[in-house]
Amino acid sequence: MRHLRSIVVGCAAAGLTVATPGIASAHPKPSPPRTLSTSVGAPFNLEVDGRRVLIADGGPGYVGQLQRNGSVTPVVGDVPGAAGVATRGHWLAYTSTVTQEETFENTASGLHVRRPGGQTVYADTTAYEAAHNPDGATEYGPRSTDPCVIDVVGPRYSGILDSHAYSVASYRNGWLVADAGANDLLSVSDNGAISTVATFPAQPATVTQEAADAMGMPSCMVGVTYDFEPVPTDVEVGPGGTIYVTTLPGGPEGPELGARGSLWKVNPSTHSVTRIATGFAGATNLAIGKHGDIYVAELFGGKISVVNRHGVSTLVNLPGVVSVETAANGTVYAGTMGMDQSTPGSIVEIANGRIHARHHVH
User: Alpha-carbon distance 248 to 8, whole Å?
Assistant: First the structure.
């Protein structure tokens, strides 16, 4: 029931599938996904910059560029826990996280900002978290003091010290970082100065009899509400500078507790957050499309959903989808995790009915 300290941990459970109800949408029927590459391991984030498709691949640990023949050429190598990538003109930003494999504890995390001349500045989000702990006043855990409950899921606690700089987006003359460990959204200047934009509220779930039975919990857990950590996974900037963030609910997303991932709008002036959609199963990434569409990658749901004025609907079913991005012409790109040794990770293109000259790998 505790917070998943690394997105990688959650991806290990990617075999879990949860259906998310949708509302009929006027979104045009997309073309079937076309595979562009199977030369990726864990493509946690994509960046479409003109004709370039950049990949933050946490498998081999680098930021790479997709080639027309399906290969991926490293742009920056030796990036432990590579997860986020963004550009602004000739600037490049990417995240890294060092995680102890035995305990899944994150020992170092931050944002690398590479200037046009090649000089790189490192913004240490782990150090910022240790100094400020923005969600330190937020309480998580069970809303109960019953010894039986505490024995099962532990006591209530305040935001712990943890940083996992996961996703990054260009914003004005700097960068936004979704920190999945610290449960916050950070602003990072080109010089590496960090400040807090917003934190996110605890994500409550009440244990039903069915959920307790499914998870093998004693009867004392039935009816107990547990406040999970929010776990921001992606940040994107929409038209007019509107900031959007996806979150995981920080705990089980199986049939026991349901699909509880959310999409938020952030006001940087007031530091307030507003939930605009929920019910996503593993909301690991988002992208801003044309005409007000927002795409959400649902890792555990095995699909990409569309959020717009018509509600929430499914764009395409795509098992293992972990990242999504859009091009200026409306093309949707997505990255999938390899589910096992026989199913590699991939980068796919979804044309939404438009014709593209881009070649793909058969």
Answer: 13
In degrees to the nearest 10, what's the CA dihedral of 176, 40, 281, 160? -50
For 182, the enclosing helix (H) or strand (E) is none
Q: Mention every residue, 6+ apart, whose C-beta is less than 8 A from residue 114.
A: 76, 91, 92, 93, 94, 120
Measured over the CA atoms of residue 328, residue 11, residue 25 and residue 360, the dihedral's sign is: positive
Amino acid at 103: T
232: its two tokens: 């921001």
Question: Which residues are bridge partners to 304 per DSSP?
Answer: 297, 316
Q: What is the pLDDT of residue 29?
A: 65
∠ CA(119), CA(121), CA(126), 5° rounding? 155
Q: How many domains does the chain have?
A: 1
Three-state secondary structure call for residue 335: strand
Is residue 293 in a domain? no
The domain spanning residue 75 has which CATH number?
A: 2.120.10
319 within some domain: no
| Three-state secondary structure call for residue 263 | strand
For residue 298, is it within any domain? no
- The parts of the chain modelled with pLDDT lower than 50 are 1-27, 353-362
Tokens linked to 243: 């900031």
Q: Does any domain span residue 348? A: no
Predicted pLDDT of residue 251: 83
Q: Please state whether beta strands 139-142 and 120-124 pair in parallel, antiparallel, or not at all (unpaired).
A: unpaired
Per-residue pLDDT reduced to its tens digit, 106-140: 999 999 999 999 999 999 999 999 999 999 999 99
pTM of the model: 0.89
